[in-house]
Write a structure and sequence with these properties.
- By secondary structure, the protein is of the alpha+beta class.
- The protein has a single domain, classed as 2-Layer Sandwich (Enolase-like, domain 1).
- The protein is about 30% helix and about 30% strand.
- It has helices at about 55-65, 75-80, 85-100; strands spanning about 5-20, 20-35, 40-45.
- A three-stranded antiparallel sheet has the order 1-2-3.
- Helix 2 packs across helix 3.
Length: about 120
């Protein structure tokens, strides 16, 4: 079971971004870090755009915290399948983590190394 760490951020934009829906002066989101038992790490980011109908960053943070510090694979799969920025952040972190396990092997790839043209190693 991977360990899930999250960190919320808020960064000011160098220049305000004017859109048809309003003015953006900062960007908020949540960084996601999944850690495996042997030190492998995968990162993702949930950066909702509430201005464009996306969820509030507090809602995103709450959904991620509700998964717990050590979500099992079924819990992660369910959150990824749900989609949205939470699903994207977790899928990105999970894919990065899986790519580093076993020297570049990905979970469920039948022993193939990423980018090896499908040849067994």
């Amino acid at each position: 079971m991977p360990r899930l760490l999250i960190r919320r951020y808020r960064l000011p934009l160098r220049t305000a971004l004017r859109t048809a829906r309003g003015l953006m002066v900062e960007r908020e989101g949540v960084l996601v870090r999944l850690e495996a038992g042997r030190g492998q790490v995968g990162y993702g980011e949930a950066a909702p755009l509430e201005l464009f109908g996306g969820p509030d960053v507090r809602e995103v943070e709450a959904k991620l915290r509700a998964l717990g510090r050590r979500p099992d694979e079924a819990t992660l799969d369910a959150a990824i399948t749900e989609g949205g920025c939470v699903g994207f952040a977790l899928a990105s972190a999970w894919a990065a983590l899986a790519a580093t396990e076993d020297g570049g092997r990905r979970a469920g790839d039948g022993g193939q190394v990423a980018g090896d043209g499908g040849q067994k190693t």
